[in-house]
Amino acid sequence: MRSRGKRALRCPECALVLGQCLCASGDRLATATHVALVMPRRENKKSTATGPLALGLLRNSRLYVHGERDAPLDLRHLHDRGRRVLVLLPSEDARVLTSELVAADPRPVTLVVVDGNWRQASRAARRVPGLEQAERVCLSADRGSVGSTLEAIARSLGVLEGPEIEAHLLQAYQGKDQQPSPPQSEPEMAAPVAELTILYEDEQLVCVNKPSGMLVHRGWGKDGVPALQVLRDQLGEHLFPVHRLDRATSGALLFAKSSGVARAMQQLFQAEQVSKRYLALCRGKDPLLSWVDHPLTKEPGRGERRPAQTAFRFLGSYERYGLYEALPKTGRGHQIRRHLKHMSHPIIGDVRYGKGEHNRHFREVYDFARLALHCAELSFVHPGSGVSLQITADLPLDFLRLLRRLGLDPSLELSRA
C-alpha cells in the first residue's frame, strides 16, 4: 500500500499552504469594509486559489468554508451587527457596485465574496442561510472582465474604500515571486472564441445570437470568455448588457452602446414592454397547455412570491416529448424553466429543474447535451428612434438537427405576441 505524504502546513489566517500566502508580506490593511470570503470546501484546498491571498492583506476579513458535512455554514449573524451586507454575485438581479449605490446607505458594509466557478457561487448563494437576505451586486463591465477572486475583491474595495486600497492589493499580488500565474493561462481562458452572429445593429443597439454555454458577462471564476468580451473585441467599442440569458440558453441577446441607452432599455424590460419569444423542447406533450399563472420567488423556495405569467403554444410532439413556443409576460428568474417544471413539462437538458433520465437519453441517443431552450425573438419599440423592432434569432445547428431527427418542423410559422 502506498504511504501517504505528510499534509502541508497551512497558514492559520488565510488557510493557504505556508509559503504561498501573503500574510507575512507586510502590514495588513485596516478597512471599514469587512470582507467575508466564502469558499467551497474543495476550492479551499487548492494552492492556486487567489481569494485567501487577499485575506492575508486585510485585517478586517474572514474565511468561511462552505460544504463541510459536519459544520454547515450559516451567515445569518452577519445581519445582526448593524451593517449593510452585500454579496458579490453577477446574477440577473444584481446591481452594479458604484459609489452612488454605496452612498445611498450610510451603514458600514460587509462584503461577501463567493469563490469558485459560477455554478459553485450560485449554489452557495442559494443554500447558505443569510446570503438570500443580502443585496446582490456586481462589478461594472466598463473596466473589462475579472480574472481572479483577488482582483474581484480589489476592485470592489476600490469602490468601497478608495483606489489606493485596490492598487495596494493588486501590486502585492503581482509582486509575489512564489505565486503561480493567474488563471488566465488555463486552456478554457485562452481558447479562441468565434465571432458572434450579429442579428441587428445601429448606432445605439446591437443584438447577437448567443450560443448555449456562454455567459453574458464574467463574474470572477474560470468560466470561459463571456459574450460581452467577445462582442467588444469584435466591434472594437464599449458595450452594456441590458438583459441576460441563462448561460445554457441560446438566442437573441441585446446590448447597448452607451449607458444612457442601456438604462432606457432596462426600463422597458422592467416595465414588461419587451416581448420575448422562446422555443422549448420538453418531456411532456399537452396541446391544451396555453397559459401558466404561477407566482415565483426570487430563488426557488426562498423569499416572497411575485406574480409570474407565461403564455404557451403547442407546436408538435414526438413520442413523449413536446415542442412549445413560450412567451413570458413577466420577467422572473428562470421563469420559463420553472413554469414548465411546475406543469410537469421539464425542459430537456435542464440539469437544475429537469429530469436526469431524459437528459441522459438525449445525450446518449441524440448526442444533445445542452438546455433545449432558445430565445427566438425580441420585439420592442426602439428607445431612440421610436421604431418598432422585431429581431429574430435562428435556431443553432445542434438544436435544429435534433428537431429534424424528431420529425418536428423548425420552420413552423410561429405566432406573434
Architecture overview:
It is a single chain. 24% of the residues lie in helices and 23% in strands. With 417 residues, the protein is α/β, with parallel strands linked by helices. The strands form two sheets. Strands 7, 8, 9, 10, 11, 12, 13, 14, 15 and 16 form a ten-stranded mixed sheet that branches. A hairpin with a 6-residue loop joins β15 and β16. The longest helix is centred in the middle third of the chain and has 12 residues. The protein is globular, with a radius of gyration of 23 Å.
Short description:
The chain has helices at residues 41-44, 51-55, 99-103, 118-127, 149-160, 163-174, 187-190, 227-235, 259-270, 335-342, 356-366, 397-405, and strands spanning 34-40, 61-66, 84-88, 95-96, 109-114, 135-138, 197-201, 205-210, 240-241, 250-256, 275-283, 291-293, 309-318, 321-328, 373-381, 388-392. The protein is of the alpha/beta class and 417 residues long. Helix 5 runs antiparallel to helix 6.
